[in-house]
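Reopening this ticket.

The earlier resolution said the output was attached, but the attachment link was broken on my side. Pasting everything inline this time so it's all in one place.
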Amino acid sequence: MTRLEGSGLAVDLPTGWEGQIGRTTGVRPLAAAPGGDQGPTVVHLANFPLPAERADFGAEAVTQMRAGDVFIALFEYGPGAADRDLFAAQGLPRIRAADFDRNTLQHGHPGQSGLQRFFRVGSRAFCLYVVAGSHIDRADIVPSVNVVLDSLQIA
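Inline output:
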C-alpha cells in the first residue's frame, strides 16, 4: 500500500495503483489564484500506469485505458465555491455501478463510461470524476474505487 499526502489531502493506494496530488497537471498549469497563490488541487489516481502528462480530468490517461482499468480525478475548486448550490452535497460520495453513464465522459471513448459528483467537505469544494475502462465491467471496479475513496482524508 502506498500513501500519498499533500494540500491537506491523504489517500492510501492499493498495490498496483498509482497517483499524484498536485496543483498543476503535466499538460498545462492551472491559473494562478488571486494573490499569486497556485491554482486548485488536482488528484489523479489509477490502477494502471499514468502518463507523465495529463489534463485536469485525465484526457491523456483515459485514452490508454482497457477493460478493468479505472481513473479517478479529484478536482478542488477555489475559495468560496463551497457556498454554491452545485456543491450542496456534503462529504465524499460512495460509488455504485449504476452511477456510471456512457454520456458523462468529457471525451467519449468506445466502451468507457464515467461519473461526476460535486460535493464539499467543510469549506472545500470538489468534483469527483471517475472513468471505467469498460462500461460492461464497471461493477468489477466499484469495490476498489470505494476502498480508495474510503481511505481519502480531507483536512
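Reporter confirms the inline version is readable. Residues 90 and 98 are 20 Å apart (CA to CA). Helices lie at 59-62, 138-151.
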